């Protein structure tokens, strides 16, 4: 019993750490003067290399027979992951980190609304209410002025919502993957993302890695190795030991940290209505999980 409690406590701490680290991602992304597609590619490459080293050190084998069965879905989910990163990184360039991140966290509610369509799951009144209130939260984050007048903030928030749609696609596609689980699945999705992003980057501006300064290289290595490779390992290690509900609720540490970073570290403004909008999105998403 005590051993189980220790494992759960350790897993909870791993998830809290990983979500906190995820919340600081935008600070380092803004320090990398690369197009979003190219940045997403290098993030996937560095993370895949680190996880490969982890596999080799632990003598972990990936069953090729299972990979063949799931190949099409893995490719689709990897492509969705790559597009998700591109849109999120672009969102950071157009609007505040808090607005982009809070818009991005509409993804769980999008999943809730799409599951009845794709998996014939029942949609409850509570879930409909959560979707409506989270949507109201997004409207408050955008603001009436941006809705009517446009501008960079609106573009950034729409990019964040686009990233949320592709993140929701990753979650839904993962429900179809039965034979590959945990960190192996993520490693294969990174490889799929790399396969999709290489031609995308080649056709949309090419490669500029040699132009990076020392500070740019440092930020890129932190994003690829630490924010993605190490943190994903912690994340999936924690998921094995925690109930889905607890893991889902703790995942909202990420946007909370991102908002704090946005205001206190980056000095970005946030209005009272945006705070209320963020509370609506996160609050009703958590209630939906409960």
TrEMBL record:
Protein name (Swiss-Prot/TrEMBL): EamA/RhaT family transporter
The entry's keywords: Membrane, Transmembrane, Transmembrane helix
Transmembrane feature ranges: 12-33, 39-58, 70-89, 101-119, 128-148, 154-174, 186-209, 215-235, 256-287
GO cellular component: membrane
Chain ranges of the EamA domain: 16-142, 155-284
Superkingdom classification of source: Bacteria
Key word Transmembrane present: yes
InterPro entries for this protein: EamA_dom, EmrE-like
Family: Belongs to the EamA transporter family.
């Amino acid at each position: 019993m005590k051993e189980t409690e220790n494992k759960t406590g350790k897993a909870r701490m791993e998830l809290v750490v990983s979500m906190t680290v995820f919340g600081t991602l935008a600070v380092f992304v803004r320090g990398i003067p690369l197009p979003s597609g190219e940045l997403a590619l290098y993030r996937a490459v560095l993370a895949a290399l680190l996880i490969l080293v982890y596999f080799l050190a632990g003598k972990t084998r990936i069953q090729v027979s299972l990979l063949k069965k799931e190949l099409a879905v893995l490719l689709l989910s990897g492509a969705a992951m790559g597009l998700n990163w591109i849109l999120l990184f672009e969102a950071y360039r157009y609007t505040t980190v808090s607005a982009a991140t809070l818009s991005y966290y509409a993804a769980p509610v999008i999943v809730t609304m799409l599951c009845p369509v794709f998996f014939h799951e029942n949609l409850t009144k509570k879930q409909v209410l959560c979707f409506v209130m989270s949507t109201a939260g997004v409207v408050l984050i955008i603001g009436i002025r941006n809705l009517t007048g446009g501008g960079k903030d609106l573009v950034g928030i729409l990019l964040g919502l686009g990233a949320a749609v592709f993140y929701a696609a990753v979650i839904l596609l993962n429900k179809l993957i039965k034979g590959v689980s945990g960190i192996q699945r993520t490693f294969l999705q990174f490889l799929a993302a790399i396969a999709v992003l290489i031609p995308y980057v080649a056709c949309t501006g090419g490669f500029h890695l040699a132009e990076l300064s020392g500070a740019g290289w440092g930020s890129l290595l932190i994003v690829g190795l630490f924010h993605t490779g190490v943190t994903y390992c912690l994340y999936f290690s924690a998921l094995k030991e925690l109930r889905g509900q607890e893991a889902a609720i703790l995942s909202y540490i990420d946007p909370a940290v991102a908002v704090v970073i946005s205001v206190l570290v980056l000095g970005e403004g946030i209005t009272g209505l945006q705070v209320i909008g963020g509370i609506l999105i996160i609050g009703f998403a958590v209630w939906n999980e409960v």
